[in-house]
Amino acid sequence: MATSLKRSLFSGRAAELDAMETAFRDVSGGRQRSILLGAEAGGGKSRLVEEFADRLSGRALVLKGGCVEQRESALPYAPVTAVLHELVQLRGGTAVRSLVGAASVRELAWLLPEFGETSERYDAAIARARLFEALRKLFEELAREMPLVLVVEDIHWADQATSDLLRFLTTRLAKIRLMLIVTYRPEKTSGSNALRTTVADLSLSEGAEVLNLPRLTRAEVAAQLEGLLGRPPTPAVINKVHARCCGIPLFTEALIDASGNLRTDFPGSLIDYLLKAVRDLPALTAELLKLVALGGPHIAHALLRSVANKSDRALAELLRPAISAGILVPDGDGYAFRHALIHEAVRGDLIAGERMAIHRAYAEVLERGPVPSYRVWHSVALARHWHGADEAEHCLRWAWQSAAEAAATFAYADQMEMLKLVLAAWPEVDNAAELIGVEHCRVLELAADAACWAAEAEQGLAFVERALAEVDAERDGTQLAALLLQRAVMRQHTLIPGEIADLERALDHAPDPTRLRADGLGQFSRSLILRGEFDRARLLGDELKDLSERLDDEEYRIEALIVAASVDMASDSSRIDAHWSVAKRAEQASIGRIEVLAGAALLQALLETGNYAEVIEVGPAIFARTVEFGQARYIGAIVGSPLCRALLAVGRVSDALETCERMAALDPLPLGLVHVFECQAEIALVIGDSDRISAAARSLRALPPGPQVASRVAANLLRFDIESGALAGDTDQSAILIGSVSTHFEKHKSVSWPLLASAIRVAVDTNQKDAARQLADLAARLPCRNRAEEAERLGISAEISRIAGSDLDLWEALAQNWADLGQPFRQAYALMQAGGAAVNAGKRARGAGHFRRGADLAHSIGARLLCDQIETLAAKARIDLRGGTDGGMPKPPLGLTDREFEVLRLVAAGQSNREIADNLFISSKTASVHVSNILSKLSVPSRGAAAAMAHRLRMVDPV
Predict the structure, then answer these.
(1) Are 52 and 15 in contact (CB under 8 A)?
(2) Which of 81, 455, 493, 816 could bond 633 through an S-S bridge, CB–CB 3.0 to 4.6 Å?
(3) pLDDT digits (tens, 9 = 90+) for 433-487
């Protein structure tokens, strides 16, 4: 099914490829191996085989054949016929005949007429034995020349003869260089005894290994989408595709059209594909699936039993064919569709009358009372089903009740959905306002507030505009002010202009000492801090402090303290204790909104002052609170950004990358995406990947050019462009960009130490001496608020010293400063420069020590480019990085990072990936990646071999 102009990028499957590569090494050594590759339909079996075959190019003869689905019976020996045909195409008929002799060729002619005359057949059993023997001889001869990889796909459709042949090959060809790869769908084994027996027999044969492919993770779907689109996909697209395709590669491809855009509807071929198994079901089971389809993503057995009006036994008999066909799966106390897309296809196949009747049946059952299932939200289900049944008054009543329940549990997305149902039903109900006790404009205001917290700003802004059109500004200035505050916060997070004007107008309409004015003062103060307007923010914060005392309200007292601490940090970042005090007070108050605001301010302050260990210690808990309070999508990326940067600063690159992926997975609003894309670029800078830096910069530029973070984004974009240009070797472009740095500072009236440091370093590297000195003069006039900025200034002095001859003392002092701040990447760079300065000063031993220590650090964090630079400088100085006794790099074949050493020790202790993940507080996927890297670096085929090497080299304590 062609759905895209681009070939899908191979994604994931690292562990499976490693296992297949290990098996091939055994085959190359003279041992036959079999791989049974199982995955559900569309799960990527063929794509994995294709990728593996590509990697074997020139090392093996790969022949492929597939079984063919037939309604009545399968074609006999279909995959073998395809293999023979491919072999003749590759080698020619004459060459193949010469391998097996005339008698065997006549047997093979029964499968492939191109071989000419067939043998005479009098006894079926003898004829089959002769055919098997001819094939054995052919494969043996081929394997003498080079390793033979025989691929048989889709054996769930195999005829009995093919299954028997596979058993024959695994028993009679055990001592030749043959790798047999068979693919199948595990779900088919439940309905076919023959397939179940075949898989069992093959898996028990000598040298056999079963590999079951899991569904792709979100990160793997993102990589697949990048290959399809030709560009990094947005977090929103990744989330939508991952949710709809459930990690099945074929479905991912089907959701992207030929122009590279996400489909809003299904191509006809995909609908037919999805509904094929449904239409093969017994009629009564297919009818029951219609009920299941409108019951939600999970349908409780008790609810389905009541709606279908069936006994437990009768219901089970109707459901079993759908479960056997892999359409439904048992799910806790009920059932669910195996794939979200199958669910959508079945639901979309219903006609209007069917939908209304089924929804009414559900609603009438639910009206009798709650269903005994923790997965059924009673009031929400009733609202949805009455809406589907076109009963507006019932829908209005239940949707209003469920909206209140959702708000009480911080389920803002559900609250917004229910309020949308209230608004949809409103015109159809004559006494709507009397029925729920509020006016239409108030419902719009509540819907806007829910949308804001759910980070659905586009919908929230639409609700606000509708409410503003209804509100009477002269009569109800308070409601107008509340709506303006809502619009302001959504404009901020979507980077839309007009936020400050809304805030000013809101305060004008809320002059009285009320909680509404306090909300406005706090929100206005934070907006000004975001823009760097600290003096004005302080005035508003002082007013908020006074008002909180008049109201005797602890929530606003703490918010005023957050504002004061943030403003004070702008001029004196040594006052970090104030943030700690406020965060603890907010935690004691147990007010979700304030606790998250205080936590976010604390993390940012800790990051700015170089307290990375503390960010890493408290950051995960603060991030977890955003999830608990239903604010993860609204503010999660902003909270996660300091944690990601701190992890990167201390050299935990893989953990930083995982945190960044979690931030992106939240699908944040544009303000949050600024943090996501900046973190992506920072990680790429450490790794030295210019393409990834450029991709992140493009994503950042694609966001709305909002005034809220204009100065910050401009500085970071300029820095990323300078760094990526330098990595790409574009000195002309670098010169232009560096020349614009002074102009940037004049325009934005703000300081960016990272931008200055990058620009000066690249200027010195590219011999732009005057530009470097000019920027250094600018840096010398800037105040330093903390140790990190003092280290940046010292680094600039050290870079300038390279113009006339590097100052060894400066570089050594800088390396120590970065060491004290716990920044191994910056420390390694400083040690590299110190090593070069020492060698130039005739102090080779001192320089060698610096080079070795810098190389160790660079290797430990995976900074490949910096490793190469250090090795190049050391080689020029004729210094052996692996020599000496002062802490040089591990000897080959190691080169493991610090985290990989930790993982190796746990592997040697016999721990699984899940146990390793729990011990190191990482995901199982990250643990699996570390293990794969370890096997590659140690050049060993398995975990056991890695553990043995670790003990042999005394890398771990003896057991």
Answers:
(1) no
(2) 455
(3) 999 999 999 999 999 999 988 888 999 999 999 999 999 888 889 999 999 999 9
Q: Which residues pair with 151 in a beta bridge?
A: 64, 181
Q: Give the Cα separation of 583 and 599 in Å (integer).
A: 6
- CB contact set of 351 (below 8 Å; sequence gap of 6+): none
Number of neighbours of residue 568 by Cβ within 10 angstroms = 18
Torsion of CA 795, 801, 802, 805, to 10 degrees: -150
The set of residues, in sequence order, having a beta carbon less than 8 Å from that of 427 and lying 6+ positions away, is: none
Residue/partner pairs of 407-414 with CB below 8 Å, 24 or more apart: 407/446, 407/450, 409/630, 410/453, 410/592, 410/628, 410/629, 410/630, 410/631, 411/630, 412/450, 412/451, 412/453, 412/454, 412/630, 413/450, 413/454, 413/456, 414/377, 414/380
299 SS3 class: strand
With contact defined as beta carbons under 8 Å apart, do 646 and 616 qualify?
A: yes
- Taking only the tens place, the pLDDT of each residue in 491-507 is 999 999 999 999 999 99
d(CA 511, CA 229): 52
- Which residues are bridge partners to 210 per DSSP? 36
| Number of Cβ within a 10 Å radius of residue 914 | 12
DSSP string, 886-935: SS-PPPTT----HHHHHHHHHHHTT--HHHHHHHHT--HHHHHHHHHHHH
Q: CA separation (Å) from 586 to 296, 589, 600, 618, 636?
A: 39, 5, 12, 14, 18
Angle among Cα 710, 712, 718 to the nearest 5 degrees reads 100
Q: In the chain, what is the straight-line distance between the N-terminal and C-terminal CA atoms, in Å?
A: 55
Dump pLDDT digits (tens) for 149-158.
999 988 888 8
CA distances from 341 to 244, 257, 293 (A): 6, 16, 11
Q: Could you give the 3-state DSSP secondary structure of residue 504?
A: helix
**Residue 686 and residue 871: Cα distance in Å, rounded?**
17
CA-derived radius of gyration, the chain: 33
SS3 percent helix, strand, coil of the chain, rounded to 5, is: 70, 5, 25
Region for 630 from its dihedrals, namely left if φ exceeds 0, alpha if ψ lies in -120 to 50, beta otherwise: left
In DSSP notation, 74-118 reads: PPTTHHHHHHHHHHHHHH-HHHHHHHHHHHHHHHHTTT-GGG-SP
Task: Give the separation between CA 549 and CA 127, rounded to whole angstroms.
Answer: 99
Is the entire prediction scored with pTM above 0.70? Answer: yes
Distance CA 296, CA 371 (A): 14
Strand order across the 33-38 sheet: 61-66, 148-153, 178-184, 33-38, 208-212
Give 613's contacts (C-beta < 8 A, 6+ positions apart).
646, 650, 822
Average pLDDT along the chain: 86
Length of the chain: 959
Closest CA to 940 of 55, 18, 210: 18
Distance CA 328, CA 338 (A): 5
Identify whether the C-beta of residue 226 lies closer than 8 Å to the C-beta of residue 232: yes
Question: Residue 712: what are its φ and ψ, rounded to 5°?
Answer: -60, -50
> Largest Cα–Cα distance of the chain, in whole Å?
107
d(CA 123, CA 75): 20
Could you identify the residue written with the tokens 């992926």? 661
pLDDT digits (tens, 9 = 90+) for 561-602: 999 999 998 877 667 899 999 999 999 998 889 999 999 999
Residue 812 Cα to chain centre, angstroms: 39
Phi and psi at residue 69, in whole multiples of 5°? -70, 130
Q: Which helix (H) or strand (E) holds 847?
A: helix 844-861
| Strand, coil or helix: 788 | helix
- Quick count: other Cβ atoms within 10 Å of Cβ 486? 24
